Amino acid sequence: MRMRRAALAATTATALLATACGGGDGDGSAGNGPSHYLSLGDSLTVGVQPDDNGTLQETRDGYTDVLYRTLHDSDSTLRHERMGCGGEDTTSFLEGGNGQCEGEYEGMSQMEAAENFLDEHGEEVELVTLTIGGNNFTGCVEELGLEEEDGPAVDADCVEDGLERLRAELPEITERLSTAAGEDTRIVAMTYYNPFLAALLLEDGEETAGEAPEGTAEVEGGLPGDASVVEYATGVLEEMNESMRGTYADAGIDVADVADLFDSSDFEVPEDSETGMPANVQAVCDWTWMCDTAVGPDIHTNRAGAQEIAGLFEDRLR
User: Fold this and answer.
1) Which domain holds residue 48?
2) CA 287 to CA 302: how far, in whole Å?
3) Are the C-beta atoms of residues 143 and 152 closer than 8 Å to each other?
4) 122 lies in some domain
5) CATH number of domain containing 108
6) How many domains is the chain built from?
């Protein structure tokens, strides 16, 4: 059984909010009013999860909400500006056009709304978190159900387009955020886990520890070499996350490495495993709805997964 990360509430919040809560220099720009935490991104930002009927809905159990409650325990003046929106990808983040976000930003894109908020509140914004890029690819996969005989259907051309947009648009997002943010505003972004590892559960249990099993799938647009769907998805996620790490490093933005937290590249079966699952598949089953056949499969984190990711962000803020 995977262990939940220990809470770092007091230490993390004190370190993060030191400038806002400490003695000011008399100019009234800090310490005299509320401080702000701005969360940006996609459905993970707003805690989307399936309800008892499997219908997706926003909750207050996303990682940003868990993180905010932790920070608020140490600074009751902290306010959470929650700007995430389900279905947001890098293109719609910059340009708008996501139907799920209509009415969210008064006709602006999420990027423009974030810039306006940062311009208005300036040095009062202590923290910005960013979760964007995963939806560049979610539309490329169909038939997620574990009951599907042939496994998920993947459109490789769609995946390549998603990668190209990520490489072109994420640097613009990070540059604009960094420019708009106050000099002391902390920005932390995240990489992504690989929910499609749950496709390994379609196999007959004959996988070899330490090797990526073959998996099953229908792939449109051609698959490189003799790669299986699991190998292909793993490669794409690694390429995506590596591109994101490089972009964030170039912009001076800290990274909460969720891919590493979820052991995304670890196909070994732990010696103490009670299920016989590889470490990466176990993490996806424990922390998302992908292996829940009652209301899933669904790629979003459950409450336990949100708490794990929030703990990772807390680590980065120490």
Assistant:
1) 35-317
2) 6
3) yes
4) yes
5) 3.40.50.1110
6) 1
Torsion 214-220-224-226 (CA) sign: positive
- Choose among 40, 10, 43: nearest CA to 305: 43
Running DSSP on this structure, what letter comes out for residue 96? -
- Is 146 within a domain? yes
In a domain, 30, yes or no: no
Local structure of residue 224 (DSSP, 8 states):
S
Beta bridge partners of 142: 153
pLDDT class of 224 with cuts at 50, 70, 90: low
Higher pLDDT: 142 or 19? It is 142
3 state DSSP class of 198? helix
Sheet containing 125-131: order of strands: 79-82, 36-41, 125-131, 186-190, 254-256
15, part of any domain: no
Q: What six digits make up the tokens of 308? A: 């794990």
Strand-pairing partners, residue 104, are none
Sign of the C-alpha dihedral, residues 129, 135, 141, 147?
positive
Backbone phi and psi for residue 61, each to the nearest 5 degrees, phi listed first = -115, 20
The predicted structure's pLDDT at residue 216: 40
Of 200 and 248, the one with more pLDDT? 248
- Judged by DSSP in three states, 123 sits in helix
pLDDT at 6: 38
d(CA 297, CA 226): 27
For 199, other C-beta atoms within 10 Å of its C-beta total 28
The token duo for 42 is: 């996609």
| Amino acid sitting at position 178 | S
Cα–Cα distance measured from residue 265 to residue 193, given in angstroms and rounded to the nearest whole number: 10
pTM: 0.85
42, 87 in Cβ contact below 8 A? yes
Which segments of the chain does DSSP mark as H helices, in order?
Answer: 9-16, 18-21, 63-74, 90-95, 110-121, 135-138, 156-180, 229-250, 258-261, 279-287, 303-317
